[in-house]
Amino acid sequence: MPEARNGTAAPTVVREPRGLASHILVLLGVSAGALAACAKIGEDVLHRETGPFDEPIRDFVLAHQNRAVRSAFHVVTEVGAPGVVVPAACLAAVWFWRRRRLPIAAAVVMAPAVASGLFVSIKRAYARARPAGGAPRREQTYSFPSGHATTSAAVFGALGHVLWREEMLPRPAALTLATVPALVIGSSRVYLDVHWATDVLGGWSVGALVAALSGAAYERVRRKTREAGEPRVRAAAA
After folding, report:
1. Where are the beta strands (DSSP E) in the chain?
2. Is residue 1 part of a domain?
3. Among 214, 219, 220, 194, CA closest to 34
4. Hey, which residues does 3 pair with through a beta bridge?
């Protein structure tokens, strides 16, 4: 055991994962912003103050719809449904656990599990009716928030963060994965007239909150894993 010059043992210093503090701060910032957005949008929906925002967007979309784009968004909305995204996230978590031996798989599982529970509970609490386009597509559940937007933002956000931090994707690719699928999937719901714009904004906000919390859980597990697996570095004597 190394000793300091006065003969006493030098203190043990544990090397933290690179950039841990800054990543935690960013995740806290995202969480705070998403929570504020959730609260504001939820308040406006509760007091039925979203009409001046939702109705002009719906009118514009319906007036400028294109058959080819509509067909493409039909595919997007089917592929991006919670019933597809949630099982896919669970499969990704299994891959992390079995192939890479990464206990951080829990963070990937946390995102769809929490997101699904949240959007179902919030839908029941608000009991908001869908726009008229929801009836022909047999969209029977309540409207706020969009389940597609919530789960896609939560799952892809958490997955992008984990893949980047594990150095499996470069930062630009991870950021694209974390944002673009959720934006396209959420937009498809407004374009197909099965959700109001604020339903999608609310879903993105809830999903971003869940993704940030999942990222924080990952950082915590990652720190513990590195502390257990990395050698401890003894500080040199002053």
Report:
1. 12-13, 233-234
2. no
3. 214
4. 9
